[in-house]
């Protein structure tokens, strides 16, 4: 008999031996068996007469523990024979090298006893090793004679008595957890048989899908983590909690963390392998809860992002069959293939939402095609223009259970798809608007026929961002009286009375008026924009700039605006201007196009080309990234739509002008009667 004493204090060994997860503690003994070239290892839960678990035994048919290894390894912490090699005798990957796994029994039992039969120069030998929980620094080694059944090398580890009731180890969750840990190893080495409480680890029968993300690098705050590979296994049944298992080499799990990934309807395990995790395990850091190493946290965040992308794609795949049914029924709101990356992402989110609706809404399943067409159209508009509203739509329209609403909302939050689609759609709409505007003002087909009060007016009303992001209120082709009334409402809440006239006495009117309250520390401050649109074929002269100044003076001279905190931006937009105007708007130390620069107002003269180029410059970078293209057919279609809307609006405008003319005639009649 030999008594070996580790060169370490009991308290220190206790910290190393303690594991928060009993299944992982048992897994350490299985890894030791696998490192000993076993082809079959079994975790047996020893039950008493009442069915309770009294002890745990781990049996394997490996090469056993030799007396030499026992005397060397059990006396020196960190001196395992595995440090001298990378693989087992049969070239399988080794799990441990630190000689600490044998102490993990401390989390389960009061004592651990190894009984091993090994080969010594062609003869079988047998020994036992015993360690008590109360004296982890001491190991008792005894050589024994062979029994009748000792015909092959093997090792049995007996853990007893147990420290507490571990009956839950016999449950489905513990077995699923155990399976998740060893599934990659069994897939890599299919000749190895691993059993837990009589149930073999058979991942092939339980796997729905297995996908590998090739090795790549992750840039962290203090280092670059090389050769990170990720494997995702989706299971048919629950695995007792979604986890990311961390390993140093393929097939070997060293630690695990909660997945914290939104994946509705999926049961999965993820496996991430990198030399970095081996370093962490060698430093005994992977067993710590709340590890805050910045590089470690960065890598884990990256793994979770990769998993999120994977399950977003899987959700879309699952919904493909349903989507085809909707297409065949004529209720799917999209036609053909996605025209760009923006619509591709938009459809992906839409398909996921539709799959969720179809899975959990009985009303939607029973609805006829006409109702499905309406509701899916509503959902598409929400995804395209207001993804934040999807939560309410899923609740009020489809009656989706709250937990499924939350899952979908979390999916959008974690992937930022809502923000991506909202911003991408906005940019795409603006690019289309600019292309249509260029078609109107530059294409000879439209340039000579377009009028201020026509396609230009309608297009600008719908795209006031052209003049600046802070302007959004538009009033098309309004008389200066209505402009004054609108501005007066903004400032005082009351409509102004009377008719506004230009200095020459004529009633003034502007083509388009845009206004918006600009955020300011003084809540009474207002900023407005007045735009005079000219047809593209017109060359502006001093006459038109004088007309613009008339508008400026007429507005600013009104008592409604006197002694108020108000600023103005006045624009004259045209096809081109003559040399006299060019000389006035291209002066030294002034921005090009600035006609007047006053404390309370700015007056600009811009060509359509200059205005469009300014807008394109703001959108160019994002357009390149989104690869948005606009076809000639789409431009012509938009122009046709504009013309159709003009026909409708002209009828309304004509009626308004008739009413205004009648009002002036009535006023003139009253004046004549008063004179008489």
Automatic annotation (TrEMBL):
Pfam families cross-referenced by the UniProt entry: HATPase_c_3
Region (Disordered): 657-676
Gene3D superfamilies recorded: Histidine kinase-like ATPase, C-terminal domain
Acidic residues bias spans: 657-666
UniProt xrefs under InterPro entries: HATPase_C_sf (IPR036890)
Domain of life assignment: Bacteria
Protein name (database record): ATP-binding protein
Annotated organism of origin: Microvirga tunisiensis
């Amino acid at each position: 008999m030999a008594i070996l004493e580790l060169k370490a204090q009991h308290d220190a060994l206790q910290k190393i031996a303690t594991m928060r997860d009993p299944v992982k503690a048992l897994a350490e003994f299985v890894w030791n068996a696998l490192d000993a070239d076993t082809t079959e290892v079994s975790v047996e839960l020893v039950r008493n007469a009442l069915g309770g678990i009294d002890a745990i035994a781990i049996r394997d048919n490996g090469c056993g523990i030799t007396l030499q290894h026992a005397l060397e390894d059990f006396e020196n912490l960190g001196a395992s024979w595995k440090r001298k090699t990378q693989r087992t005798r049969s070239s399988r990957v080794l799990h441990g090298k630190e000689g600490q796994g044998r102490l993990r029994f401390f989390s389960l039992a009061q004592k651990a006893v190894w009984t091993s039969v090994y080969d010594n120069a062609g003869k079988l030998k047998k020994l036992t090793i015993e360690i008590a929980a109360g004296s982890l620094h001491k190991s008792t080694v005894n050589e024994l004679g062979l029994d009748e059944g000792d015909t092959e090398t093997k090792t049995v580890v007996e853990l007893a008595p147990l420290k507490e009731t571990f009956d839950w180890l016999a449950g489905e969750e513990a077995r699923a957890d155990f399976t998740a840990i060893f599934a990659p190893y069994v897939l890599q080495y299919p000749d190895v048989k691993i059993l837990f409480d009589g149930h073999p680890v058979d991942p092939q029968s339980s796997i729905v899908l297995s996908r590998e993300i090739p090795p790549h690098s992750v840039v962290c705050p203090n280092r670059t983590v090389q050769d990170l590979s990720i494997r995702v296994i989706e299971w048919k049944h629950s695995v007792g909690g979604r986890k990311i298992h961390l390993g140093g080499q393929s097939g070997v799990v060293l630690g695990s963390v909660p997945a914290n990934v939104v994946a509705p309807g999926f049961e999965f395990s993820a496996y991430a392998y990198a030399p970095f995790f081996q370093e962490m395990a060698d430093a005994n850091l992977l067993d710590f809860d709340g590890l805050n190493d910045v590089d470690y946290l960065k890598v884990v965040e990256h793994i979770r992002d990769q998993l999120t992308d994977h399950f977003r794609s899987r959700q879309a795949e699952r919904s493909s069959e349903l989507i085809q049914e909707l297409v065949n029924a004529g209720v799917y709101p999209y036609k053909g293939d996605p025209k760009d990356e923006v619509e591709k992402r938009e459809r992906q989110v839409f398909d996921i939402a539709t799959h969720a609706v179809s899975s959990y809404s009985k009303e939607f399943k029973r609805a006829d095609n006409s109702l499905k067409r309406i509701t899916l159209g509503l959902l598409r508009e929400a995804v395209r223009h207001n993804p934040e509203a999807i939560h309410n739509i899923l609740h009020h329209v489809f009656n989706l259970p709250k937990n499924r609403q939350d899952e979908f909302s979390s999916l959008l939050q974690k992937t930022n798809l809502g923000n991506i689609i909202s911003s991408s759609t906005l940019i795409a709409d603006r690019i289309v608007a600019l292309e249509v505007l260029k078609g109107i003002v530059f294409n000879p087909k439209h340039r000579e026929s377009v009028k201020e009060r026509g396609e230009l007016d309608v297009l600008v009303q719908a795209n006031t961002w052209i003049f600046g992001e802070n302007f959004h209120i538009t009033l098309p082709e309004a008389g200066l009286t209505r402009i004054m009334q609108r501005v007066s409402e903004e400032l005082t809440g009351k409509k102004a009375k009377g008719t506004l006239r230009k200095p020459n006495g004529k009633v003034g009117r502007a083509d388009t008026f845009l206004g918006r309250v600009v955020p300011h520390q003084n809540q009474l401050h207002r900023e407005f924009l007045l735009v005079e649109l000219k047809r593209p074929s017109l060359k502006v002269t001093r006459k038109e700039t004088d007309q613009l100044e008339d508008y400026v003076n007429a507005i600013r001279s009104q008592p409604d605006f006197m002694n108020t905190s108000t600023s103005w931006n006045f624009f004259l937009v045209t096809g081109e201007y003559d040399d006299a105007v060019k000389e006035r708007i291209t002066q030294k130390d002034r921005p090009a196009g600035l006609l007047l620069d006053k404390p309370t107002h700015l007056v600009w003269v811009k060509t359509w080309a200059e205005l469009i180029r300014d807008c394109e410059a703001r959108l160019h970078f994002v357009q390149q990234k989104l690869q948005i293209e606009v076809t000639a057919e789409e431009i012509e279609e938009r122009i046709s739509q504009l013309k159709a809307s003009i026909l409708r609006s002209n009828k309304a405008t004509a009626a308004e002008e008739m009413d205004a003319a009648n009002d002036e005639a009535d006023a003139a009649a009253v004046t004549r009667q008063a004179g008489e």
